[in-house]
């Protein structure tokens, strides 16, 4: 949704040689020292990072009921009074060799339990809000999966939240993986392919966090810090919020003609949206002023004001009465259902999975901190472009019935990227990818970069097109260009 760290001493692990770089990793060896807490969690304290550790329960029996598939849920303390919720599922197939995938939802301030229970997790909650059904298209069919609620205050996470921007969020997520990979519980995954999959505000999180991880890897390589390298081998973002200027313009274009769905708003409304976009002190002028203001403190107000203005005068009328996450539905938003929220509020479920606070899907508090600094109005396209230019595997995709981060804006954003393959991408037509002869997406491939418009899907693509999403995920995992099967 989008509102508006123990391996044996001296063991050297060779990380997957992604992007042609291999980093040798020497981790110190300490046995995990488990203690059991009053709440029944097993607890491990980090020997490396102050005030950090893991508090977890294993094999709760909730959600993933496939025999012998391990799951672990609980909290990573990423600092004093900072409990970051995670839920890990082993791969249903070849868990000893399968990659390690992080799934993050957006917001800012929305829980990744959205993805787990509505999109690509092992189960779906039934209409009785009290039972679950296995999802045959779960992404843990082919990858180990970890879902994290960040920043603190989101979902089941709780404690002190100091995160007021995308940039400020990154170190806590990096620390979370340091603490996980330090423990015997998760150390084996440190050498796996690391896939970073995200959605929506993930258009900010993805480019920012991967860039930060790379910067930390460089500091590790040069000996300036002693930590575990986190080498992301693929980044995938669906219906992302990359560049607000481009995406605000795309609201008008989408409302004027949404490919496959037609004109969404009457001419007089379109005229008003156009005036609000291009008029003096309009949305485009304000967004440009925000970009020009850089990261100075005074930029916060400029960017915040731009976001407010564009939200009220461009996005809101463009969406009108449509469900902005799926224009095929009206504003009542019937699918995907919110049964899972009721399920996560059940005391027995909470106790079994080790959750310690009431679940909130998209609480206001973490969101408001981002809004105050104008983070929503800022662009992460330069960082995304640089990552694409580094030749890493990057996949940008979008369900074509989503309005809020619609595919026209996503596509215009990737076409605006400054990278070596720009011309080639511009000259590559979108062609249909089919599954058993049925078109599921219109795709473009240039080397390790791919774009896809997924047909008949809203914002949460895997919820609407689970089979296509799993097939696409498998092709990204295998580092293939998107192709028909
Ligand atoms: C694609 O990425 C792989 C590493 O995953 C790299 O070896 C290869 O050179 C890249 N391909 C191109 C065309 O850049
Ligand atoms: C494990 O932790 C306990 C309590 O913190 C401590 O007394 C004990 O020495 C630790 N054992 C090891 C092997 O580190
Ligand atoms: C941990 O805290 C101690 C005492 O405050 C400090 O001396 C040390 O540098 C800290 N270590 C790290 C890794 O932050
Ligand atoms: C689960 O693991 C147990 C013990 O290793 C084994 O006996 C059993 O056959 C496995 N069940 C399935 C369904 O793989
Ligand atoms: C919910 O499910 C549990 C078993 O999973 C059952 O014991 C309980 O009666 C159910 N509650 C309701 C209200 O259906
Ligand atoms: C996912 O894995 C499960 C268990 O291995 C299997 O039953 C199911 O058919 C798989 N789903 C797909 C779509 O391959
Ligand atoms: C921990 O965080 C909570 C929630 O923000 C806050 O109410 C509490 O005062 C914090 N406790 C400490 C010791 O900082
Ligand atoms: C976020 O908060 C920190 C600490 O309060 C502050 O130094 C920083 O300037 C804030 N970030 C922005 C973008 O305002
Ligand atoms: C267009 O904007 C004008 C001036 O703000 C307003 O009076 C009019 O009602 C708007 N028309 C529509 C269709 O929203
Ligand atoms: C929204 O859709 C539902 C289900 O199709 C329908 O009952 C309801 O009347 C619709 N509401 C509006 C405002 O169109
Ligand atoms: C990318 O290519 C297009 C079409 O050739 C061109 O208009 C645009 O300026 C290029 N953008 C960059 C950033 O190189
Ligand atoms: C691609 O698939 C779409 C959606 O089914 C269809 O409308 C279009 O005609 C197809 N294009 C080609 C070239 O087959």
UniProtKB/TrEMBL annotation:
Q: Which GO terms describe its molecular function?
A: serine-type carboxypeptidase activity
Q: What is the species listed in this Swiss-Prot or TrEMBL entry?
A: Suillus discolor
The record's PANTHER family line, in alphabetical order, gives: CARBOXYPEPTIDASE, SERINE PROTEASE FAMILY S10 SERINE CARBOXYPEPTIDASE
Which InterPro entries does the record cross-reference, listed alphabetically? AB_hydrolase_fold, Peptidase_S10, Ser_caboxypep_his_AS
Coiled-coil intervals: none
* Similarity remark: Belongs to the peptidase S10 family.
- Look up the signal peptide feature and give its range: 1-23
**Sorted UniProt keywords:** Carboxypeptidase, Glycoprotein, Hydrolase, Protease, Signal
Q: What is this protein called?
A: Alpha/Beta hydrolase protein
The cross-references to SUPFAM superfamilies, in alphabetical order and at most eight, read: alpha/beta-Hydrolases (SSF53474)
The processes (GO biological process) annotated in the record are: proteolysis
- A matching Pfam family: Peptidase_S10
Q: What do the Gene Ontology cellular component annotations say? A: fungal-type vacuole
